[in-house]
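PT: before anyone asks, these are the final sequences, not the draft ones from last week. 1552 residues across everything. Please model them as a single complex and drop the result in this thread when it's through.
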Amino acid sequence: MMARMLLLSFVGSCVAWPLSRLLGRRAAGWGLAVLPAAIFAAFINMAPAVEAGITIVEHVPWAASLGVDLVLRLDGFSFLFVLLITGIGALVVINAGAYLSDETDAARGRFFTLILLFMTAMLGAVLSDNLVVLFLFWEATSVLSFLLIGFDAESPHARRAALISLRVTMGGGLALLMAVILIGATLDTYSMSEAVTRSAELVRSPWIILIVAGVMLGAFTKSAQFPFHFWLPNAMQAPTPASAYLHSATMVKLGIYLLARFEPLIGALAFGRDVLVTVAAITMLVAAVQALRSENFKSVLANSTVASLGILVLLVGLDGPIATVALVGFILAHALYKATLFFCAGSVLHATGLSKLRSMGGLARFLPVTAAAALLASLSMAGIPPFLGFISKEFLFLAQVESSWQSVPLAVAVLVNAVLVAVAGAVTLRPFFLDRDKVKAVRHGETAGLVLGPAVLALLGLTISLEPDWISRSVLQPAVTAVYGSAVEVDLSVMHGFTPLLALSAAVVGIGALIFVFWKRIHRRLAAYAPLDRYDVEHAYDNMLRRFDALATATVRLVQHGDLRGYVWTVCAAAIVFVAWGLIAAGVAPRGTADWAPRLTELGGVAIALVGVGGAVAATKARTLLSALLAVGLVGFISALIFLTNGAPDLALTQFAVESLVVVLLTVALLVLPLGVRYTRSVRERRLDALLAVAFGALILVMLLDMSQAPRLPGASEFFGARALLEAHGRNVVNVILVDFRAFDTLGETTVITVSAIVAWALLGPRTAVEGALPIERAPTAIILVSTSRIFFWLLLGSSLVILWRGHNDIGGGFVGGLVAALAFSFHSLAHGVAGARALLRVHPQGLLGAGLLLATLSGLPGLFARGEFLTQLWWEPSVAGMRVALGTSVLFDLGVYMVVLGTVLAFLFGLRRQAAR
Amino acid sequence: MNASFLVDGAAVWPVLVPLAAAAITLLLRYHETVQRSVMEAAVLLMLASSVLLLGRVISFDTVSVAFGGWGAPFGITFVADRLGALGSVAVGTAALAVAVFARADIRSRRRRAGFDPMFLAMLAAVNGAFLTGDLFNLYVWFELMLIAAVGLITLDRRAAQLDGAVRYATLSILGASFILLGIGLLYAETGTLDLVRMASEVAGRPPTVARTAAAFLLLAGFALKTGLFPLFFWLPSSYHTAPTSVSAALAGLLTKVAFYASLRVFVSVFGLVDGIAVPGLATALALVAAATMLVGVLAANAQTDIRRVFAYQVTGQVGYLAAGLSIASLAGIAAAIYYMVHTLLLQTGLFLGEGAIARATGSHDLRRAGGLMRLRPRFAALYAVLLLSLAGVPPFSGFWSKFMVIDAAFRGGSTIIALIALAASFLTLYGMSNLWTQVFWKTPPERKRAVRPIPPAMLAALTILAACTIGMGLFVEPVTRFARHAAAQVTPGTERVPSMPPPAAEAP
Amino acid sequence: MTATYALLAAILAGCALYMILSRNLVRMMLGLSLLATAVNLMLFLTGRIGRMQPPIIPDSRTTLPQAATDPVPQALILTAIVIGFALTVTLTVLIVRTYRAHGTLASDAIRAADTLGDPLRPESKR
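LR: through. Structure below.
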């Protein structure tokens, strides 16, 4: 049933927007109030069960494997909160309907949605027993409070206040999350009730400090305890109904709720209660002073709320049953009178547009009902018999006397209560009844919607104490039992006879009256007292933000300096450090030692290597880019030579072809670029770089030498060697690997060069869809070249096809073939210009690319269809003129590669030539 | 011949479909509308095949394809296990959102510059990386991603894009070289490139210089491509220059697939969980993760350009992934997997939303935006979901990701990591709340042009991804169960699925 | 011989890194291509060194003789070479374009990406 209520409440708040538009300005509030009222009624029906001390538990599975299920648990304490949330909720919605009568439909709809969503979240928070679910609703209330405080988003004050509240409360929320996770990690359950019953285990856990600290931080931030209290007075930027609901009656009590729930755990800790009482005392004092200093109706109320919350935390901290009774009683009393006063403040604001207390006076003429309600509420607040406030205050003092505490907190409580009395006077007598001539007229009169809320709540504050039987039997009694753990006799009779407590109350009222009389003077003194501002927490908060922003900026300067060399340096250094760290951590040394002295037969190889070294060094020293390019190219050819002399002709061939192409293309590119190289690095930087380079080289040497000592495991090579001819019909094992065994790599790599060609064309080619007319190039001078070029072209093209074809059994293959073909075209373009070469090519290079890629991809499909494996090469061997020819889909694949390579190289060549010609 | 290969070979389609489509779009380069519809059809088909694959994997644990019929350990095989299939589905979803967004974002000039073929090639590469069981094949896919990304970043030929692309290419090529070197060393050590075979060769052997060096070279390479501190510089210096659709796709997909690769290699090949094969790896990961979380989020908070805010957020978020991995426990790996899927989808959405903001306000600058909650309420609601998810507010997937990582960290004894993760998520919340008030609340500064409408295509794309983060949050149970299975599957020598015992009966 | 080649590869890698760290984009690019060459050489060392016979099955036989070199690294290198080629040339194209856009090759003078939305300069325009 509770789950259904939650769902109903959620759905209701989702449809609130359209509904409010439907009902219109007048009726919206009343109409939507039905939802909370209905839920209120539904829960009232459960009163008998609660009274009988039955705990109703509902279990809706959600994330069982995480231990997070929607476990709802209704006991007396939750019941009290549920009634407050839904009951006051209904009145708030009605009040809001009247209060926002000037707002646009959209704004009102938004407000209703938010406030009802908030109600849902509150209900969930006080009902859920699973701590993670509770945290979920907890965070939801924070977010919604953020959105409500920032409701008037255009006002910078509202935005600032919203941000403060969000950051403070959600920061505490994260602390709470930590506590929740640690509880789960310790007990393997997130059930709050179980966590409380098993608090002995928790106390033994190594994380207990973190757990309790997390819970306390969560509660203190939410319930505005020092030093986090400052978000609450700021939160008064919210529309007044929201302030009445969130920031006095319900949300700020969530922290109290949590602390009360975890009281056994906190009490089990040596210093637990001390912390609570100390924080509470400080909060009360600070809030009392701030209340006396503040100007606005709402902020006076806000500060007095902070003080009351301090009293509540104090009551949680005190031990003994009476403390619990006082806690429960005060939660109820405070909710009733403070909400009333906020409603009245709202009515005043709505009616006069005034917010400063000193500018108000004699409003009782215009707002009689409001004035009456405010009077009743402040009598309760001041603790005048026979109001509920009086009883709860009696219990407060009783609890302190009975608890095992010395007199300090008692004195604080007396003082603060006195201030509250004064505040009660200040917010009621002055604006409504005294100096009658201050306000001449008001914009709006009272409407039913405006006065209903305060009237009802104020009267409740009186009737409950006169007729306490039902409420104490079926709400307070169970609540106390639920919190204290065992039944406690609650007797709300107004007069306990003339106990010393009564004298205490009288003293409080007396002092309060005095403060009220001297209110103006005290107010001016305190308001003018600068140090209070300097040591204000909000001040510290702003400084903290400034420091934080500075830190963030410093970080940006550090990581975003924008010097590419610096980035490269850091990256390489990091890689080197990683490897070194690994080697140290593993504590390994290179295996064995390689034979350093080369044999006589190998001197040739050594010579080649030396040339390579020379090339590399020359490249680093080269003063022009062209020489650097040539040096690098030389190294490339050297590596090709090394491949050749070590039985890798395919590699050699490809390396030669690629290297020459790179040289050609880069030379074309260099036509565009300045060739000279000035020093771009300071001497120091060059030293650092050299150092890094040496370290890098050394590390590589070490790992290569160690690798060379690794035992050879019989692996892929043997497998391929055995099957290349018999199963894959190819004698050139490397080529067979490329087009068959590991053809998929080749496909991927073909795509790589295809994309590179697209990039080249996108960057170098013309931007228009129709190929931009290429610049007319100078007619080539060498007649010989022109006349011979065609022959050479066809020769090269033909040989490229031969290479492509024989590749499977002998040196060659699609890549080299494509490269040679590209050579042919580039040669032709040398003679007849790019235009001529392209005319000869007929198709667009990209067409070639697409066709080639498609061919290579599709050549794998027949195998897929026939054998069920992609890229399975199929073979058939027709005998042409007596000699058997092996034809396979791999030939198609290789052809595709050939086309792609040709297209790519040409795309680069044409593009770069085009740039060079500009 | 029968048609069963369509299903048996389910693992190839997520790669083949976009690959073939890339070739086709290349041939169709003069017919932009056709090109676009081919691309969209391919993306849909790809997603469908990934979902099919997921179904197969759920029933058969792994779906493997031996290319050319040469099985492991010598031929190249695709081994789609739960992790790979999940990743590929996530990729498909993000790609779908981007494709929808592109309708409003990619005009004919960008199409002519080759958006479609390059985007499709990138998707093929990402899926290939998620599905392949061969280390060198993985390297090839990474190179394809690299080159496609370079092309996509420079789609408009803007100066900033070229500069960004140069930085991106330079650093990424370095990273790729590290990876290739590591692969070579591993091949020399094990005589195979097949991940499974490699694992069995590495397992139980004492560490050698070559193998240790290989592991840490791969760490460097993957860390660079994942965008981990201190190797992430390419990321914030390039992503903010690209067109929205592109930066969204890059931010969503590439860093995550790189993380996936490191997870795959370190967990299943180097046995990170029992931690014998490569000492010091978990510690290094933990240090890197902690630094990444803090630096990324801090730097994000100092930014004014929204694209840069999220670029640094990408870094901050992958820090959490590395954190999950560094815990070196099944729970940690499962958390990392869930987080990976979550952040893959979310980062895409955040960048797409940034594009929508820029479209509406005509600027990428926080300070020039404003008032969008009043002016574009539908968009505001959608984007609020994404921001809340990023900030780790329940019940969205962002909360569960952080919850699992922190929980695993505490249980795994890495308390520092847990605390840093909490601190970083507070800083994220700080930044996101600021972004919200700036973009959606404050009165927009005086500007010449009025706020433009946001095309429905953009809203649709955002709706897809918002639905994903909500769904992953509400249906967290099946997703986490799956993630835990996946984690157990990649971790050698574990069949049991770790799970918290369900909460005991409620106290009366 | 392996030691010699290993030394060569190490030196190449060192020089390559030194060039990559230059602030001249072309030198940097050349350094990367040199690094690719070095890495290919290292890959080559993962196979057996010191055998001369190419991995081509002679007509007399049906399987690869033991004396032949290891074909697998060669295939990998072949792939790596082509990819390296693609990357080098693409980077070249990028650099040409960058030079056209900025009129310089000094990477520290090219700040377009960095200044785009740089928070440290208040007047950052898009």
